[in-house]
Design a protein that fits this description.
- The chain is 37% helix and 23% strand.
- The chain contains 20 helices and 25 strands.
- The chain is globular and about 80 Å long.
- It is α/β, with parallel strands linked by helices.
- It folds into three domains: 233 residues, Aminohydrolase, N-terminal nucleophile (Ntn) domain (Glutamine Phosphoribosylpyrophosphate, subunit 1, domain 1); 176 residues, 3-Layer(aba) Sandwich (Rossmann fold); 147 residues, Rossmann fold (3-Layer(aba) Sandwich).
- Helix 3 runs parallel beside helix 4 and helix 13 packs antiparallel against helix 14.
- 56% of the residues are buried.
- Strand 24, helix 19 and strand 25 form a beta-alpha-beta unit.
- The strands form four sheets. It has an eight-stranded antiparallel beta sheet with strand order 3-2-4-1-10-9-11-15. It has a seven-stranded antiparallel beta sheet with strand order 5-6-7-8-12-13-14. A five-stranded parallel beta sheet has the order 17-16-18-19-20, with helices on both faces.
- Bound molecules: 5-amino-5-deoxy-1-O-phosphono-D-mannitol.
- It is found in: Cytoplasm.
- It comes from Pseudosulfitobacter pseudonitzschiae.
- It catalyses: D-fructose 6-phosphate + L-glutamine = D-glucosamine 6-phosphate + L-glutamate.
- Its EC number is 2.6.1.16.
- It holds the Pfam family GATase_6.
């Protein structure tokens, strides 16, 4: 993962770099560092852990200069340490890197042979040393950087800064995104446009294989074949304001609370006044489609699993769902008339992007459902459907998940309408259920206290199981993911009916089992599975509606009452207790809710 920035400015650059890195900290927070050139002298500061540690260091050991590069790290090669922190320097060059240099072992051997010493365990150090080697041999900075780039295999976004060069950054993109920002007599480089938003809204996106020579007043780009490339400058709309917690203790709490509003926004952007689904141009004709392939990672994958039920039940389209990291290497056949759909909050997830590229030229259409409209996945799709969740900062995805579900359900309804599998009356019924969601979510959020109380008890567990059937099964998976990623409690989810085929052996009096079960057609079946758990002394947390609780509440360890809801939209509403249980459990355990250990918000390495 990692986030990189570069600034050729007219002011002291250290605070600008730190501010830009703050906006990239979602990419990793194992260490952070900056390098500057001041009157020709290259120097750097680095600190382990979050960016605040680098800020503190800069108070005591300031770094002057109007040209600089910066980095926030998610460790891949080498433990989080000051030594392994970027920028990596070798003689006259400093380098920041997002990605993985796959042939770094061969390069290290070659450099060692040539007498170079390594001080870090990182793959990136080879980039700095190679550049130094080429400069020692007489190449100028740009030539040396380009010669180095020719040697690299793997995925990278790189920025190079040079001793003696106050007006030069060399940048390159292969597999990891990189944006160049245009100021007035200033230029910027960033892993994404969000990092640069307070500095400029005029952005050039580098394309695969591009290399760029950046000065304060010029940008020269060469494509993968070495030819001069003319890349457009786009004016983008990103809220430049620093996102804040709006009085909440954590971003995650704020983002959970925002859901009634953002779901309302998503609905407003796709529903016409007369209750039809309107997609952005060029739209999709689902009568030209025989099959859907949905691909994503993590929470977005669970949104796809949910959507499978909707597309199959409502629109009668066969659906395959895959995790992107498996899909991309399985080389699945993609029959004609397949619509390939990629779901990603960030729009930058490396595996999802690679899976999308695999489908190019094979699938009839490539669609994406994204939160960041300027992201790589959005830009490389035939049609990108934004989810309108707003910036999501918490590493644990919450509002993006429910917005993804909402957009996917609307897409399934559009498919049903195109294919004539749903009557006008049934369509209106589903649309009205969607429209009721913001109010129902507000009511559900009023159960916060009950969830907090239950979470306090959950926080003492070592293992927690989640059960659900039908549309509640993917949600059970999402509930377990949320709990483990922020509370570090081991959690697993099963389709309720699968429990007796093995996992029931895990049940004893110490294991809480969260059962997601609105009073729907599958309720009785789920309750039977729940009874099997209670018969073995498992501690059941039943999440249901008033009718469900009245029928099945007896003997449970805890229960949470949700508003009564239309079956089709239930997973969107029931996501809230799943999120709040995880949130309050993590708070009770005192973990780092917004930036849990070992994780990053955007996974740009495979
Ligand atoms: O940005 P994406 O939606 O592509 O990210 C996919 C996953 O990395 C992400 O959903 C991850 O699982 C979250 N941490 C879950 O809360």
């Amino acid at each position: 993962m990692c986030g990189i920035v570069g600034v050729l400015g007219n002011h002291e650059v250290a605070p600008i770099l730190v501010e830009a890195l703050k906006r990239l900290e979602y990419r990793g927070y194992d260490s952070a560092g900056i390098a500057t050139v001041n009157n020709g002298t290259l120097d750097r500061r680095r600190a382990v852990g979050k960016l605040v540690n680098l800020s503190d260091l800069l108070v005591h050991e300031p770094l002057a200069g109007k040209s600089g590069i910066g980095h926030t790290r998610w460790a891949t090669h080498g433990a989080p340490s000051v030594t392994n922190a970027h920028p990596h320097m070798a003689g006259p060059v400093a380098v920041v890197h997002n990605g993985i240099i796959e042939n770094f072992r061969e390069l290290r051997a070659e450099l060692a042979e040539a007498g170079f010493q390594f001080v870090t365990e990182t793959d990136t150090e080879t980039v700095a040393l190679l550049t130094q080697m080429y400069m020692n041999a007489g190449a100028g900075p740009v030539e040396a950087a380009y010669q180095t780039l020719d040697r690299l295999q793997g995925a990278f976004a790189l920025a190079f800064l040079f001793q003696g060069e106050n007006d030069l950054i060399v940048a390159a993109r292969k597999g990891s995104p990189l944006a160049i920002g245009h100021g007035h007599g200033e230029m910027f480089v960033g892993s994404d446009a969000i990092a640069l938003a307070p500095l400029t809204d005029r952005i050039t996106y580098l394309e695969e294989g591009d290399r760029a020579v950046v000065t304060r007043n010029s940008l020269e780009i060469h494509d993968a074949n070495g030819a001069l490339a003319n890349r457009a400058i786009k004016t983008i709309q990103i809220d430049a304001a620093r996102v804040d917690k709006a009085g909440h203790k954590h971003f995650m709490a704020k983002e959970i609370a925002e859901q009634p509003t953002v779901i309302g926004n998503a609905l407003a952007n796709y529903l016409t006044a007369d209750g039809h689904i309107a997609l952005p141009d060029p739209g999709v004709d689902f009568t030209a489609i025989d099959r859907l392939t949905l691909v994503a990672c993590g929470t977005a994958y669970y949104a796809c699993l949910t959507a499978k039920y909707w597309f199959e039940q409502i629109a009668r389209i066969p659906v395959e769902v895959d995790v992107a990291s498996e899909f991309r290497y399985r080389e699945p056949p993609i029959p004609d008339r397949t619509l390939a759909l990629f779901v990603s909050q960030s729009g930058e997830t490396a595996d999802t992007l690679a899976a999308l590229r695999y489908c190019e030229g094979k699938a009839a259409r490539i669609l994406s459902v994204v939160n960041v409209p300027e992201s790589s996945i959005a830009r490389e799709s035939d049609l990108a459907l934004p989810i309108h969740a707003g910036i999501e900062v918490g590493v644990a995805s919450t509002k993006a998940f429910t917005c993804q579900l909402t957009v996917l359900l609307m897409l399934a309804l559009k498919a049903a309408s195109d294919r004539g599998t749903l009557s006008e009356e049934a369509l209106a019924d589903h649309v009205s259920a969607l429209r009721s969601l913001p109010a129902l979510m507000t009511t559900a959020l009023e159960q916060n206290k009950a969830m907090q109380n239950t979470a306090r008890r959950l926080s003492e567990a070592r293992d927690v199981l989640f059960l659900g059937r039908g549309l509640m099964y993917p949600l059970a998976l999402e509930g377990a993911l949320k709990l483990k990623e922020i509370s570090y409690i081991h959690a697993e989810a099963y389709a309720s009916g699968e429990l007796k085929h093995g996992p029931i052996a895990l049940i004893d009096k110490h294991v809480p089992v969260v059962v997601m079960a609105p009073r729907d057609t599958l309720f009785d079946k789920t309750v039977s599975n729940m009874q099997e758990v209670m018969a073995r002394k498992g501690k059941v947390v039943l999440i249901s509606d008033a009718a469900g609780l009245e029928e099945a509440n007896e003997g449970v360890w805890a229960s949470i009452c949700m508003p009564t809801v239309h079956n089709a939209v239930a997973p969107i509403l029931y996501a809230l207790p799943a999120q709040l249980l995880a949130y309050h459990t993590a708070v009770a355990k005192g973990t780092d809710v917004d930036q849990p250990r070992n994780l990053a918000k955007s996974v740009t390495v495979e």
